[in-house]
Amino acid sequence: MFFRLATVFVTATAIAASTVPVARQVGAATTCTLVLTPQSPVSSSTNLLAEFNLLIGRNLVIEAEGEGGDGSGNNAGSTFTTNADGTFTVEDTVSAGGETAAETAAIITGWVGEIKDGFTINWLVDAASCN
């Protein structure tokens, strides 16, 4: 009995020692610039930073997950400028779990011509480029 208990203890210790916790990895980041047209009027009370962060981050994670990504993402926070023609130029550095920077860039540049859901407004992606 003692031999069996000692064997079980040594085996359990070896297994525990060989198990290394692995942190969840988010893919490599890419910086993208998008030109967006709102599909409804933008009010002065609209939080555009929150709108653009959700628009890019949420849509990226959903599409990356559909391509085998793990459903995680990282969004460094967008910056934007308002253009004279009513469009917005938005820049953001993002990554998606399970995707390379090139795969993430391909997802985002593939949005050109599509309407994407934001927090309170839907947006037409007029142009997108990533580096």
Give me a quick take on this structure.
This protein has 131 residues and is α+β, with helices and mostly antiparallel strands. The protein is built from 3 helices and 6 strands, in the order αβαβββαββ. Mean pLDDT is 84; it is low at 5-25.
Task: Please describe what this structure looks like.
This protein is α+β, with helices and mostly antiparallel strands and 131 residues long. The chain has a single domain, classed as Alpha-Beta Plaits, CATH 3.30.70. It is 34% helix and 28% strand. Strands 1, 2, 3, 4, 5 and 6 form a 6-stranded antiparallel β-sheet that branches. It starts with a helix and ends with a strand. The relative contact order is 0.25. Mean pLDDT is 84; it is low at 5-25.
Distance between the termini: 64 Å
N to C succession of SSEs: HEHEEEHEE
Structural class: alpha+beta
- The coarse overall form would be globular
Work out the helicity level.
25-40%
Please indicate the count of domains: 1
Strand content: 25-35%
Secondary structure tally, helices: 3
Radius of gyration: 22 Å
Look at the structure and give the CATH class. Answer: Alpha Beta
